[in-house]
Amino acid sequence: MHTESCAAGQEAGDLLVENARLELQLDGLHRALQSRAAIEQAKGVLMAFCRCSEADAFAVLARLSQQRNVRLRVLAETLLRLAASGFEVSGEALDGWLLEQVLAISRSSPAAAQRPRQPRRPG
Question: What are the pLDDT tens digits along the chain (123 aa)?
Fold first, then answer.
């Protein structure tokens, strides 16, 4: 009888550990989906603004993320916030830096040179 209760206790403990592991995995998957959505939307903003391909937009985001040592998700969310505000900088250092980088990219893009598109600058 004692052996059976020990086995049942061990099984319950194993189930609790497995449940905790699965909850952590699920939480990680939720964060990954949210990050991916922000990155995809930011790529769309760059594609429209700089008139570049999807691959070029991702390459730009990745390069800027490495240059500034900022997670790609954070950079994407910042770009989305800037785009939603009409590219008006809120005063955060990352906002201003990112706006300057996007403007420089849009000016140097051959497609953008054909039809320039300037965001509103804070006045």
Answer: 566 777 777 888 887 888 888 787 777 666 766 768 999 999 999 999 888 899 999 999 999 999 999 999 999 999 999 899 888 877 778 888 888 888 888 888 665 434 444 455 554
pTM for this one? 0.63
Token pair recorded at residue 10? 């061990």
Structure tokens at 18: 């497995």
Please tell me what DSSP assigns to residue 48.
H
CA separation, residue 109 to residues 61, 63, 113 (Å) = 15, 16, 6
Q: Please, are residues 111 and 74 in contact by the beta-carbon 8 Å criterion? A: no
Task: Report residue 17 as tokens.
Answer: 């550990």
* Domain chopping of the chain, boundaries: 2-114
